[in-house]
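pasting for ref. prot 1 ->
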Amino acid sequence: MANTYTQLYAHVVFAVKGRENLISHIWKNHLYKYITGIITHKKQKLMIVNGMPNHIHLLIGFNPDCNLSDLVRDVKSNSSKWINENKLVFGKFQWQHGFGAFTIGHSQIQNVVNYINNQEEHHKVDSFRDEYIGLLESYEIDFRTDFIFDDNGAAPPEL
C-alpha cells in the first residue's frame, strides 16, 4: 500500500496526586490552553479537554507513530512545571502516577466529547473513583482496586 491512513483516538484520564482538589476554576482554562499547546507541539490533535478540580479528561486524535505514554508523560510533566512556575497552588503541584487511556472509534467521538463536556454534571452524582472504575469496567480492563489509586504518592507496585 502506497499510503497509510489512520483515525486513532484515545480518551485519556489522569488525576492530581492524592486526588486533591487543586485545579482552580480561576485558572483551569489557562491550564487547558497550555495542555493544548503541548499536544499540538507534539503534532497530535487535542479534540477536547475538561475535568474537575482533582482530575482531567483529554480526547486526543493521534498519529500511528505517537507513543501515547510518552505524550501523556510530556503533558503531565510540562503542565505541572507550568503550574509550579506560575505559583498557582500552595506548595508543589504533581500529577498522580499513571493514567487511563481508552481507544475509541470515529463513531464514538461525539459521545466522548459530550461525556467530557459534562464532567461537572456527571460528578454531582459519581465520584472520580466510581467514574474511573466504571471506565475500566466498560472497557473490560483487568485491574486490582488496591492498585488503581496511589494514595501515598509512590508508584504502585508492579503486578
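and prot 2 ->
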Amino acid sequence: MNVADKTVLITGSTDGVGKLVALRLAAEGARALLHGRDEKKGEDVLRAIRDETGNDRLEYYQADFSSLDDVGRLAEAIEAKHDRLELLINNAGIGPTTRGKVKREASRDGQELRFAVNYLAPFLLTHLLLPMIRKSAPARIVNVASAGQYPIDFSNVMLTRGYDGMRAYCQSKLALVMLTFDLAEALKGSGVTVNCLHPATLMNTKMVIESGAEPLSGVEEGADAILHVATSPDLEGRTGVYFDGKRPERANAQAYDAEPRRRLRELSLRLTNLSPGE
C-alpha cells in the first residue's frame, strides 16, 4: 500500500513502537491520525513528528482506552472530520503490570483492565469505524498482538479468580488474534484485509520496562514488522494471517476454533453494547 495521501490511524502512537510507526508513515506522506491518553504529550509528539517530516497533515486525538465511552467519542471525532480511513493500526495496549502493580485492576466500566484496554477497546473502535474503512477499500486493519497467548476460560474471563497479570495480558492478546480471524472472515471480498502480528520480543518500551523484563529487541524491529503487514505490496489481498515479525506463524489453537470465537464475539458485543450487525 502506498500511504501517500492516505488516511491512517495509529492507536497508542505517542510512545514506543507506535510513535515510530506514526513517524515513518508521516514521512511517507500519510495523513496520520495519532492517538494517546495524555493531551500534552500527544501535542508534543505531533509537533515533533511534524517538524521532523515536514508533514503538516497530522492530527492528535485523545482517548483513554480504559473507558468505552472514550473509545466511542474517539470514533465520533474521527468520523466528524474524515470520510475515509485506508489503514487502521490497533497498537495501543498495556502490559502485564501497570507501574509495578500486581493486583487485579478494573477499567472504568468494571472490566478486567487488560482485557478492556488491549481487546475490548480495539474491538469497539474497529467496529465503529468499519463503515468508513469499508468505503475506503482497498484498506487494511492491523492488530498488534503478541506471541504471548493464553486460552480464554469463559467461566472466568475477567479473572476474578486466580488473577495473574501475565495471564491477563496473554488472554487479551489472544482475544485480539481471535478478533482478527473473525473480521477477516466477515470482510472477505470487501477489499478490506485484517491481519495481526507479534512485532518483536520484549522491545525497549515503557511497557516492557514497567513489567520488570529485560528488553531483547528495539522498537525499530517492531516498527519494521508492523509496517510490513500494514503496507507491503506482497500482502495485497492477504487476510486472516497471524505473523511473528514478518513471517506467517501459527497462533494459539483456540484462535482457529469457531465456537470460542463465537462465544467471544457475543460476549464482546454485549459488553460494548453493539448490535450483531454493527
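The CA atoms of residues 32 and 46 lie 10 Å apart.
The chain has one domain: 7-272.
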